[in-house]
């Protein structure tokens, strides 16, 4: 099946008791057993729930993977992957990372004796010098957040495979519509379902997918043992959102393209970060592994102080100043104080998360209204 068909049908079947076409919200914590241990595959909803299962199968199908697990947030999904590690293990990860990932790595798991190396993945060969026999995991994000660098998923996968290291790709920014890391060598794909997959800014959820049965069993163990699993209502909302993922992504990409061009020619902008520009340093890699360039754009304002930047960020009428991304509505974010506020200033500034940087999540509104809003907000 092709992407659009999977987005609408994968994991979903008419309800066996009523024929309901939409997967019902199975609002139940427990399931009747005919005799002890004799049941229909469901025992307790921390472990399995039919609404959640439909969502898990749908996300797995969109990522061309066999197994999927849904979580109560993207961070719960990340937490579950990290539980595969033990004290003494080392992780190589990006130096331009979602703020919450940086926080869980450094503030939660470092204290259990796991060591994290934050490196520049745009030249994959450079990671070889960080590999040793304690390296257990490589964790990347691409496009990176918020400076839209592109990591060559396949090239890093080859190094991970050669070294026998588990390889995880956080595919939140691209969504399965734009790229499928499992096909390029990833062992696990992580998603913040909160963003493009659910797409309507009304749920917080996460997911992991894998093709490896043994890995799936291990992840399922921590998922059930630690319990970061979502309820059926949220699973239903995500499942509803996912049905239009392909339609939304097309619109995000088209609006993103026009906005990136507009900003690039604007006198108040010093730099536009968007992988679709031919002179973007990783444009060729983006073209190779992505189907389009997405709706995430960052801009550095020219000669702007923190106050000037706040003024611009606060003067939009159609765009909302808010954290998060990937919803149908356009959002403006100030990474240095909002999404990346948990990263120390000297560390974030090294990778370009400076005070005059603004990140835009381009929504699917009418492009004319979005351009007009940008124009008025950027007026001197
Ligand atoms: C939002 C986000 C996360 C965390 O997901 P939550 O659903 O907010 O817990 C992880 N990675 C990236 C790239 C994100 O944008």
Automatic annotation (TrEMBL):
* UniProt entry keywords in alphabetical sequence: Pyridoxal phosphate, Transferase
- The answer on whether this UniProt entry bears the keyword Transferase reads yes
The EC number on file is 2.5.1.48
Q: A GO molecular function for this record? A: cystathionine gamma-synthase activity
Q: Please state what class of enzyme this protein is.
A: transferase
Which InterPro entries does this chain map to? Cys/Met-Metab_PyrdxlP-dep_enz (IPR000277), PyrdxlP-dep_Trfase (IPR015424), PyrdxlP-dep_Trfase_major (IPR015421), PyrdxlP-dep_Trfase_small (IPR015422)
Task: Name the Pfam families for this protein.
Answer: Cys_Met_Meta_PP
Cofactor dependence: pyridoxal 5'-phosphate
Q: Which Gene3D superfamilies match?
A: Aspartate Aminotransferase, domain 1 (3.90.1150.10), Type I PLP-dependent aspartate aminotransferase-like (Major domain) (3.40.640.10)
* Source organism superkingdom: Bacteria
SUPFAM superfamilies reported in the protein's UniProt record? PLP-dependent transferases
By sequence similarity, the record places it as follows: Belongs to the trans-sulfuration enzymes family.
Name of the protein in its database record: Cystathionine gamma-synthase
- Which species is this UniProt entry from? Olivibacter jilunii
């Amino acid at each position: 099946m092709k992407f659009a068909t999977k987005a609408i049908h994968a994991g979903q079947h008419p309800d066996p008791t009523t024929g309901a076409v939409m997967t019902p919200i199975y609002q139940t914590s427990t399931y009747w057993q005919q005799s002890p241990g004799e049941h229909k595959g469901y025992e307790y909803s921390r472990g399995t729930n039919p609404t959640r299962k439909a969502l898990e199968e749908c996300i797995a199908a969109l990522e061309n993977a066999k197994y999927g697990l849904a979580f109560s947030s993207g961070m719960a999904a990340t937490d579950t992957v990290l539980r595969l590690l033990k004290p003494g293990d080392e992780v190589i990860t990006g130096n331009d990372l979602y703020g919450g990932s940086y926080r869980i790595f450094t503030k939660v798991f470092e204290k259990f004796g796991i060591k994290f190396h934050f490196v520049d993945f745009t030249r994959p060969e450079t990671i070889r010098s960080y590999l040793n026999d304690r390296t257990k995991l490589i964790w990347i994000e691409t496009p990176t957040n918020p400076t839209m660098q592109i990591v060559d998923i396949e090239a890093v996968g080859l190094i991970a495979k050669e070294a026998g290291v588990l390889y995880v790709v956080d595919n939140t920014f691209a969504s399965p519509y734009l790229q499928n890391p499992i096909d390029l060598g990833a062992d696990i794909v992580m998603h913040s379902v909160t963003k493009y997959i659910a797409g309507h800014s009304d749920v917080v959820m996460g997911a992991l997918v894998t093709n490896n049965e043994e890995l799936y069993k291990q992840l399922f163990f921590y998922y059930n043992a630690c319990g970061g699993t979502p309820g059926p209502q949220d699973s239903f909302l995500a499942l509803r959102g996912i049905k239009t993922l392909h339609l939304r992504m097309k619109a995000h990409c088209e609006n993103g393209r026009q906005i990136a061009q507009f900003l690039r020619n604007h006198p108040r902008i010093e730099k536009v970060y968007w992988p679709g520009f031919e002179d973007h340093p990783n444009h060729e890699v983006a073209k190779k592994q992505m189907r389009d360039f997405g709706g995430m754009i960052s801009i550095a304002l020219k000669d702007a102080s923190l106050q000037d930047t706040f003024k611009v960020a606060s003067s939009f009428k159609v765009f909302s100043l808010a954290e998060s991304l990937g919803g149908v509505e356009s959002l403006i974010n100030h990474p240095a104080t909002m999404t990346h506020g948990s990263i120390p200033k000297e560390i974030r500034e090294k990778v370009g998360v400076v005070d005059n940087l603004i990140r835009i999540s381009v929504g699917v509104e009418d492009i004319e209204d979005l351009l007009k809003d940008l124009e008025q907000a950027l007026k001197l």
